[in-house]
Write a structure and sequence with these properties.
mainly alpha; 4 helices
C-alpha cells in the first residue's frame, strides 16, 4: 500500500535517475554517478527514518549498489546501465499509475531480473 511519503520518495528517485541519464549528454559522467549514489543514500535514509519501505526502491537500491562501480570507468557502459535503470523506473511508474487509476490497493512490482 502506498503512502504520501512513499509516493514523494518514489517521485524524487524517478527524477534523480532521469536527471542522471540526461546529465551524461550535458556534462561529465561523474554527475550521473553522483545522482545515482544520491538515490542509494536517499533510499537508505528513508528506510532508517520510516517503518515503511518501498519494495521496488529496496530492490533498486541493491541493484544500484551492486552495479554502480562496475560501470563508472566505461562511459558507454554507464549510459547503457542508466538506460536500463530508467526503463525499470518507467515501467514501475506506469504500473503504479495504472494501479492508482483502477483503484487497486496493492501495486504490481516490476521484476528487476537481468
Amino acid at each position: 500500500m502506498s503512502t504520501p511519503i512513499a509516493d514523494t520518495v518514489f517521485e524524487l528517485c524517478v527524477y534523480l535517475v532521469s536527471a542522471a541519464r540526461g546529465g551524461l549528454d550535458e556534462s561529465s559522467s561523474a554527475n550521473g554517478f553522483r545522482m545515482i549514489e544520491a538515490v542509494s543514500r536517499f533510499v537508505a535514509a528513508c528506510e532508517t527514518a520510516s517503518e515503511h519501505t518501498d519494495p521496488f526502491l529496496r530492490e533498486i537500491k541493491a541493484y544500484i549498489d551492486e552495479h554502480k562501480l562496475k560501470v563508472t570507468g566505461d562511459r558507454a557502459a554507464f549510459a547503457v546501465w542508466l538506460d536500463e535503470l530508467l526503463r525499470r523506473f518507467a515501467a514501475e511508474a506506469k504500473a503504479r499509475n495504472l494501479a492508482a487509476g483502477s483503484g487497486e490497493s496493492s501495486l504490481p512490482m516490476t521484476p528487476l531480473g537481468g
